[in-house]
Amino acid sequence: MKIIDLTMMIDEQTPVFPGDLKQEIKQVAAIEKDGWNEKRISFSSHFSTHIDAPFHMLKEGKKLTDYPLDRFIGDGVVIDARNNSELGVDYVKQNNPELSLYKIKENKSKSSFNEVKLNNLKSSLDNNRQNNLKLSLDNVRQNDIVFFYTGRTKKAGSEEFFKKNPTISKGLAQRLIDKKIKIVGLDSFTPDNAPFEIHKLFFKHDILIVENLVNLEKLIGKRFKCYILPLKIKDADGAPCRVIGVIDE
């Protein structure tokens, strides 16, 4: 058995979504003075690796505490969604184990971070990449937890992290909905940008969203057991969580 930690480290350098409360980690007791060590930690409910509940975007949506624990545990798959030169997720070809990847172009909108458009420009994959793409949309099963590896969190902490972000198209979202998955996630801070229509589409179909995952490249082409354990916060619209993938070796 091998355990892969898919959780971003929490520290004072962990990036926060533009406009969100910045985390504070303060030493409030020390062994030398008090006889014990203790920290006071504050952050938003959508900090670091976290899971979004429908209540995050829908007024009458479910909260995290409305779900039983087994909702956060299940079979996981990781789909490799890297572009050759830039990051992008748009859709997975339904009848082919390859991905259709898209070139990102900047949107000129005046937002706090630059949105991106994903144009229908198919990119060819080299042989090594094709060998890694063992899981396509056809391999996704009902109640799966589906993660997309874009390589984005490798840029966490840099200015580029929030300037261009991969997004999930409505077409791909609908295919995942049709597959009846229970959780979708990616190694980026959001699967879409304002007005967050993809968030709302998933939530309306009771699909939860995990953001800011790491180490997904270690699980490409594997089916694994996924554990997503959010903090137990009353009426939570979202919460930081520890996410791990377990594979048999």
Q: What does this protein look like?
A:
This protein is α+β, with helices and mostly antiparallel strands and 249 residues long. The protein has a seven-stranded mixed β-barrel with strand order 4-12-11-10-5-13-14. A two-stranded antiparallel sheet has the order 2-3. It has a two-stranded antiparallel ribbon with strand order 6-7. Strand 10, helix 3 and strand 11 form a beta-alpha-beta unit. Helix 3 runs parallel beside helix 4. The chain has four helices and 14 strands. It starts with a strand and ends with a strand. It has one domain: Glucose Oxidase, domain 1 (3-Layer(bba) Sandwich).
- Helical/strand content category: alpha+beta
CATH architecture verdict: 3-Layer(bba) Sandwich
Strand order of the largest sheet: 4-12-11-10-5-13-14
Q: State the helicity in percent bands.
A: 10-25%
The total of helices stands at 4
CATH top-level class: Alpha Beta
What's the alpha carbon Rg, rounded to whole Å?
A: 18 Å
Number of domains: 1
What's the name of the CATH homologous superfamily?
Putative cyclase
Keywords:
two-stranded antiparallel ribbon, alpha+beta, single chain, Glucose Oxidase, domain 1, 249 residues, 11% helix
Summary, kept brief:
The protein is α+β, with helices and mostly antiparallel strands and 249 residues long.
Write the layout of secondary structure elements.
Layout (H helix, E strand, L loop, with lengths): L1 E4 L18 E6 L1 H4 L3 E5 L7 E3 L20 E8 L10 E2 L6 E2 L3 E3 L9 E3 L8 H6 L12 E5 L20 H9 L4 E4 L10 H8 L3 E4 L11 E8 L7 E10 L2
Helix pairs in contact: 3-4
